[in-house]
Amino acid sequence: MGSPTSRVFLELRSINGRLGRIEDKLRFIVAFLKEPGAPGKVVYLASASERTLDALKGLGRPATASEVSRETGRSRANESLHLCQLRAQGLVICCPRGREKFFELKVKEEHYAER
């Protein structure tokens, strides 16, 4: 175990990292609200759902839950749950094709600021 000073330093570094992530999210919200034609409703997402949304955005095309799960490294069932939550919030639309369901972003990509 390190000295009390080094423990305090490590805790402050951890707090600084968390504050940085909060600042990034606030910048995202402000940029989103300033976009012309942006929806008037702000949607708050859990970080897990953000990860799913980012993976879908990164694929750049409609994708199945299996394809999104390969991008995030999480199970297909987990991604399916997050995609259904994003659909309920109006951020993603579901397009059934045969036995598979393809999900795609409902809002144009330019409404999403980089985080």
Topology:
Layout lengths: L3 H31 L12 H13 L5 H8 L3 H13 L3 E6 L2 E6 L10
Antiparallel strand pairs: 1-2
Outline of the structure:
This protein is mostly helical and about 120 residues long. It contains 4 helices and 2 strands; from the N terminus they run H-H-H-H-E-E.
Report on this model:
With 115 residues, this protein is mainly alpha-helical. The protein has a domain at 47-111: Orthogonal Bundle (Arc Repressor Mutant, subunit A), CATH 1.10.10. Helices cover 57% and strands 10% of the residues. The chain has four helices and two strands. The chain has helices spanning 4-34, 47-59, 65-72, 76-88; strands spanning 92-97, 100-105. It has a two-stranded antiparallel sheet. It is elongated, with a radius of gyration of 18 Å.
- Strand percentage lies at 5-15%
CATH hierarchy class name of the domain at 47-111: Mainly Alpha
What's the CATH H-level homologous superfamily of the domain at 47-111? Winged helix-like DNA-binding domain superfamily/Winged helix DNA-binding domain
Q: Can you count the beta strands?
A: 2
Summarize the biggest pleated sheet: 2 strands, antiparallel
CATH architecture of the domain at 47-111: Orthogonal Bundle
What structural keywords apply?
single chain; 115 residues; Arc Repressor Mutant, subunit A; two-stranded antiparallel sheet; 2 strands; 57% helix; 10% strand
